[in-house]
UniProtKB/TrEMBL annotation:
Enzyme class: transferase
Protein's UniProt keywords contain Disulfide bond: no
GO biological process entries: methylation
Amino acids binding S-adenosyl-L-methionine: 16-27, 56, 77, 121-122, 139
EC numbers: 2.1.1.67
InterPro entries from the UniProt entry: SAM-dependent_MTases_sf (IPR029063), Thiopurine_S-MeTrfase (IPR025835), TPMT (IPR008854)
Keyword annotations from UniProtKB, A to Z: Cytoplasm, Methyltransferase, S-adenosyl-L-methionine, Transferase
Pfam families per UniProt: TPMT
GO terms for MF: thiopurine S-methyltransferase activity
Principal subcellular localisation of the protein: cytoplasm
Protein's organism: Callaeas wilsoni
Protein name, UniProt field: thiopurine S-methyltransferase
PANTHER family: THIOPURINE S-METHYLTRANSFERASE
One Gene Ontology term, aspect cellular component: cytoplasm
Length: 196
């Protein structure tokens, strides 16, 4: 298959913000992802009180689910609208504060303290700002990253995880000549070269 057809494609942050404004968010699902339910044990290994990262989180309902289990959830999302909708749709009170290390960024935290959503680009984060994570739920994240940014994304993600972490990654298989993305087509061979 010819994956070259997607290589040059770029979706800007402005376009993502517009998708949220227009309600053009077909990627958002009200039901928990069946693969997270299926592979929950692989993510948690029976451990409790983990720090779990949701890159490019949108308003993923799984964040509430994992927080309710007692884990500490951190997400990053460029759309402030998405972040606010997450808290309001789950009736979660929250506070908002600037992130001193990142100009223009805000952190939205549930009053109970176990859900923290950074509103900024993921590329602004580093482990010195958000710490390291025991688990990652990557759905609609790597596949939403512009193909030209994949290497940078993967290197950043690797820098954000602890040694004994689990990383669940959801990708989609399709003919990349028939759809311009996102979600982009990320073949397994590329995942291996990105993450080793
Ligand atoms: N993971 C979520 C959302 C997937 S769609 C889910 O499963 O529903 C991808 C999301 O990434 C969009 O909400 C978009 O606004 C956000 N996004 C795109 N580029 C980003 C970036 N560089 N940093 C942070 N968020 C970004």
């Amino acid at each position: 298959s010819d994956i070259g057809s997607q290589k040059e494609r770029v979706v800007t942050e402005e376009e993502w913000l517009q998708k949220w404004e227009m309600g053009n968010i077909g990627f958002h699902k009200e039901q928990r992802h069946p693969l997270l339910q299926k592979y929950l044990d692989v993510l948690l290994h029976g451990r409790s009180g983990l720090r779990i990262f949701f890159p490019l989180c949108g308003k993923a309902v799984e964040m509430k689910w994992l927080a309710d289990m007692g884990h500490s959830v951190v997400g990053v999302e460029v759309s402030e609208q998405a972040v606010k909708e997450f808290f309001s749709e789950h009736s979660l009170p929250y506070c908002e504060e600037p992130v001193p290390e990142i100009s223009g960024a805000k952190m939205f935290q549930s009053t109970s303290g176990n859900i923290s959503l950074y509103c900024c680009s993921i590329y602004d984060l580093s482990s010195s700002i958000v710490g390291k994570f025991d688990g990652v739920w990557d759905r609609g994240a790597l596949v939403a990253v512009n193909p030209c940014d994949r290497q940078r994304y993967a290197s950043l993600m690797i820098s954000l995880v602890e040694k004994n972490s689990s990383y669940l990654l959801v990708t989609v298989l399709y003919d990349p000549n028939k759809h311009k993305g996102p979600p982009f087509y990320v073949p397994e061979s590329e995942i291996k070269s990105l993450f080793g």
